[in-house]
What does this fold into?
Amino acid sequence: MGAIPVRPAEVQVIVVPHEDRSITYTMTALSTAPVDPAFEEAVEEIFSGVQITD
It folds into this structure.
Protein backbone atom coordinates (compact mmCIF):
# COMPACT_ATOMS: atom_id res chain seq x y z
CA MET A 1 0.00 0.00 0.00
CA GLY A 2 2.89 2.38 0.59
CA ALA A 3 3.67 4.88 3.28
CA ILE A 4 1.12 7.42 4.41
CA PRO A 5 2.44 10.93 3.72
CA VAL A 6 2.73 13.54 6.44
CA ARG A 7 -0.44 15.63 6.58
CA PRO A 8 -1.24 18.79 8.52
CA ALA A 9 -3.78 18.40 11.30
CA GLU A 10 -5.44 20.65 13.82
CA VAL A 11 -6.64 19.32 17.15
CA GLN A 12 -8.91 20.91 19.72
CA VAL A 13 -9.21 19.41 23.19
CA ILE A 14 -12.03 20.45 25.51
CA VAL A 15 -12.02 19.37 29.15
CA VAL A 16 -15.32 19.75 30.99
CA PRO A 17 -15.68 19.27 34.75
CA HIS A 18 -18.46 16.80 35.49
CA GLU A 19 -19.38 15.95 39.08
CA ASP A 20 -16.18 14.58 40.64
CA ARG A 21 -14.54 13.85 37.27
CA SER A 22 -13.67 15.49 33.98
CA ILE A 23 -14.85 14.59 30.50
CA THR A 24 -12.45 15.18 27.62
CA TYR A 25 -13.62 15.81 24.08
CA THR A 26 -11.13 15.76 21.22
CA MET A 27 -11.78 17.02 17.71
CA THR A 28 -9.30 16.49 14.89
CA ALA A 29 -9.30 18.02 11.42
CA LEU A 30 -6.94 16.53 8.85
CA SER A 31 -6.16 17.73 5.35
CA THR A 32 -4.45 16.12 2.38
CA ALA A 33 -3.30 19.55 1.15
CA PRO A 34 -0.20 21.07 2.79
CA VAL A 35 -1.69 24.58 2.73
CA ASP A 36 -5.34 25.26 2.03
CA PRO A 37 -6.69 28.60 3.32
CA ALA A 38 -10.31 27.52 2.72
CA PHE A 39 -9.77 24.40 4.83
CA GLU A 40 -8.09 26.36 7.61
CA GLU A 41 -10.96 28.88 7.63
CA ALA A 42 -13.58 26.11 7.73
CA VAL A 43 -11.79 24.33 10.60
CA GLU A 44 -11.58 27.57 12.59
CA GLU A 45 -15.29 28.18 12.05
CA ILE A 46 -16.20 24.65 13.13
CA PHE A 47 -13.92 24.60 16.17
CA SER A 48 -15.04 28.03 17.38
CA GLY A 49 -18.71 27.10 16.99
CA VAL A 50 -18.62 23.93 19.10
CA GLN A 51 -20.90 24.02 22.13
CA ILE A 52 -21.05 21.29 24.73
CA THR A 53 -24.07 21.19 27.01
CA ASP A 54 -25.50 18.77 29.55
Notes: Strands lie at 9-18, 21-30.
